[in-house]
Description:
The chain crosses the membrane at residues 7-28, 34-56, 68-86, 92-114. It comes from Haloarchaeobius litoreus. This protein starts with a helix and ends in a 9-residue tail after the last helix. It has one domain (3-114). The longest helix has 26 residues, at 30-55. It has 4 helices and no strands. By secondary structure, the chain is mainly alpha-helical. The chain is flat and about 45 Å long.
Amino acid sequence: MNWRRLLxxxxxxxxxxxLVGAAILSVIPDIPxxxxxxxxxxxxxxxxxxxVWVGLGRASAAVERIALGYAAFAxxxxxxxxxxxxxxxxxxxxxxxxxxxxxLAVAVVVxxxxxxxxxxxAE
Length: 123
């Protein structure tokens, strides 16, 4: 099993879940928007995760880096959210959390670009 491909697919699904859920919630107010947003986000996230898993099997390095940045946003955004929830970082608002997710996602892509290629054979 290719762990990198699996983590990119799961992170892409999580990013899609966050974006679609937030978009639906911003259009439909109150309780129905929350319920529809969660289920719409779950469906879109699952479809995105499966699509990225299948697509990364024959993707170029550039496409894989784009998917890596997209997935890294969800991991960074949720990581900052968990630290906010645990009161590890108290002074960060939602805008800081969003910008932190973007900055960390870009940093992951840059580090991946500058890293020398692995000697392991891709599966």
